[in-house]
């Protein structure tokens, strides 16, 4: 077992999960973090450096690095790659004009050796916008199937501004995630402990479920104990 694997396992025993939240600028990364934490999603300004947010989810401490996505900041993403357990890639589903840019950046990112063991969750955000692409369309546009050989990935439609829209989301919160690694988590109905914090889109919580299920089963518990990894340990604090 390599040193990095030992360090990673030790950290995961403490249920610390390092998550990089990346994507083009304006995708909704900071808003998603705020929605999860029950903060006011109206007050979001462009991220010029990075924010670190700690999210307690199903007994795991997700240390989420929300890093600015402007073109000028992207070369600095590499400074944050070390010991990453999962990448959450946020997409503005209505930004068709930059979808190719988005695909290129994602594929370039995931060629990085230090991210080789990381799972990938794609949030197809801004589903409340009428012209938004579906997660299936985005999966094709970003060529996610091409990543299957190197990364476990999943895509989850959502809206960080869910609480502000009057109509219900276009897809059911319990709609399975689209994933080539068809794990047991992808069809799971969220347990009460995974219910959304104040006003956040439940589909965002399903995405986080997938992340902790992936990381927990793959690195910490061994895949046969995935259900155990998802057990609501110390959820009282969540
Ligand atoms: N309609 C809609 N707007 C969103 C959503 N998420 C974020 N936004 C808006 O998109 C803009 C960029 O959001 P921000 O979180 O700063 O993006 P970031 O650059 O990826 O961190 C802001 O004006 C947000 O209010 C969403 O789900 N729906
Ligand atoms: Mg931001």
Automatic annotation (TrEMBL):
NCBIfam families registered for this protein in UniProt: small_GTP (TIGR00231)
PROSITE patterns: ARF
Pfam families: Arf
Annotated organism of origin: Rhodotorula diobovata
Chain positions recorded as Mg(2+) binding sites: 30, 47
Protein name per its UniProtKB record: GTP-binding protein
Family that this chain belongs to: Belongs to the small GTPase superfamily. Arf family.
PANTHER family per record: ADP-RIBOSYLATION FACTOR-LIKE PROTEIN 2-RELATED
Keywords: GTP-binding, Lipoprotein, Magnesium, Metal-binding, Myristate, Nucleotide-binding
Binding-site list for GTP: 23-30, 69, 125-128
Stretches for region Disordered: 165-200
Biased composition (Low complexity): 165-196
MF (Gene Ontology): GTP binding; GTPase activity; metal ion binding
GO biological process, alphabetically ordered: establishment of cell polarity
